[in-house]
Here is the input.
Amino acid sequence: MSDLALKRSVESELNWESAIKSAAAIGVRVKDGVVTLTGPVESYSEKLAAERAALRVAGVKAVANDLEVRLPSSSERTDEDIAKAAANALDWTSGIPRDKIKVVVDKGWITLKGAVDWRYQRTTAEDAVRYLWGVKGVINLIEVQPSASKTVVKDKIEEALKRDAELDAQRIKVETSGSKVILKGTVHSWFERQEAERVAWDAPGVTKVENEIAVAA
Here is the structure.
């Protein structure tokens, strides 16, 4: 697919996405399958929705999300209010070690810090605060540090990839080095690439995943 055709497909998908209020305000540039999104959106959730929509389009190799969150005056909140809301959201979220996660808010941007045992705890904490009213963005600096040292088993990850109906596991190669997993190979879509990374992160003891999987044109 040419870059022009891919651009039109991304624009159509943005218009189709109901979570985006004004797709017409979003600029789309495409070069060699890499999509760049520019322009203003009214919320962080819209920014994320636009990114997800672009990644859904077949042929997209990567997305650079340069959208700027410009909150309407009715959505503006002080950093103190956002910090309180974020703390409450984390308190009410099950499955995360609340005492290990700290929140810092600066000009509407939330920064999460700390260390957890599992990657899902890191992503759950981010999900808990990213859609709060008044948030312009989230920086997730939470580290994954398993409490007990474990050796990542390569065979177990390969078996998990084969069980995933969304993946063609034969096209994915798994390498491990201590607690680090390296994924290589070729897949047909960005979704498959992300799914393979998610599966790798679910393995016990994993502290880092290097995703070198390429998306075929």
